[in-house]
Design a protein that fits this description.
Layout lengths: L2 H18 L8 E7 L4 E2 L6 E6 L7 E11 L6 E9 L5 E9 L1 E2 L3 E2 L2 E3 L2 E7 L7 E2 L3 E9 L6 E2 L1 E10 L5
Antiparallel strand pairs: 1-14, 2-13, 3-12, 4-10, 4-11, 4-14, 5-6, 5-12, 7-8, 9-10
């Protein structure tokens, strides 16, 4: 074979390896989103999200995010949620949160495409990620806005991501 063809093949194999080998790494993110029926979130509809931390993952620290997807027709700059968290030991924590979605100067703070916007809002302090125990965690997301049902909300969810120092 021609030496230049062998060089091209070598470069191709090297480039392909650079893209494929990182795909074999363990995933450091969990995300689950729940669809809101008819994009109209009633206060009595409380989506529940469950995930399990394996014993080998307890050495890591995690950041927890609320994920909200809505249309441009959503009427407010914020959303009030009550986050019910049940840890593996059975302890339940209720945390009301006022999450900012827009400002007068910038408009929507999340990423958008057409008339759909997605927000990933970190609810753990950036300087103090959560140290999670092994076991199953349950998150229940409750809409506590005055408007009931809350219109133009498409999805809500939880994102769990290993803190940067662990990656």
């Amino acid at each position: 074979m021609n030496k230049s063809i062998l060089n091209y093949i070598s470069y191709f194999v090297l480039l392909t390896s650079c893209f494929l080998l990182p795909a074999c790494d363990k995933v450091d993110v969990f995300e689950k989103n729940v669809t809101i029926p008819q994009q109209s979130w009633s206060s009595n509809y409380k989506p529940e999200i469950t995930f399990t931390i394996q014993p080998e993952d307890t050495i890591s620290r995690y950041n927890i995010f609320i994920v909200i997807r809505h249309t441009d027709a959503y009427r407010y700059k914020n959303i009030w949620l009550n986050i019910h968290t049940e840890s593996p030991g059975g302890a339940v924590n209720n945390q009301p949160l006022n999450l900012q979605l827009a400002t007068d100067n910038k408009g929507w703070l999340g990423s958008g495409m057409d008339d759909i916007y997605e927000h990933r809002i970190q609810i753990t302090p950036p300087q103090n990620p959560e140290h999670l125990s092994a076991g199953t965690y349950r998150f229940k997301l409750e809409n506590i806005m005055r408007e009931d049902p809350l219109k133009n909300v498409m999805n809500v969810g939880i994102r769990l991501q290993k803190a940067q120092q662990d990656l």
